[in-house]
Each structure stands twice: as structure tokens, then as C-alpha cells.
Amino acid sequence: MSVKSAPLAALAFAYKMNGLEGAPSIVRSTRPEFGDLQCNDMMRLAKSTGRNPRVLAAAVAEAIPNTFSRMCPSPALVSSISG
Hints:
The structure is a single chain. The protein is mainly alpha-helical. It has one domain (5-82). The chain has 4 helices and 2 strands. Strand 1 (27-28) and strand 2 (37-38) form a beta hairpin. Helix 1 crosses helix 3 (53-71) and helix 2 (42-49) crosses helix 3. It is globular and about 30 Å long. It starts with a helix and ends with a helix. The model is unreliable at 73-83 (pLDDT under 50).
């Protein structure tokens, strides 16, 4: 299992929850202040769906804690991941 596998799975589920098609992509962050990994899909997805990219990114981000709670059995682990 790679470091990217859990975030990719969470994003894939969050995409489905928001009616988005396609596989998410994650890359190493180019700037340390943005964390270790980043997803650059929102502009492309917003354009293809006719949605505002900021609103779409917020909806996907909001769905991720719910996704982790479905993937992880431990509530303590979920709270430490989601902030």
C-alpha cells in the first residue's frame, strides 16, 4: 500500500458523492506550506461540469472526512486525520 492509496480512495469516494466522473490524481506538493500531497483536478472537473472550481473544491473537501469515517474503523483515527 502506498502513501497515496488512502487519499486516492478518499478522493474517489468524495468525487462520487459529488457526481464527478474520473479517477482523482495526487502528486507531491510543490510547496511545503500546502502539505505533502496535492490534487490539481478541480479546474478540469469544474470546466467539464460547468461548476465554480472553488465551490466544487469545497464540496469535495467537505466530503473527505465522511469518506475517511467510512474507510477507517477507529473514530480516534478519523478525528486525527480530519483535523
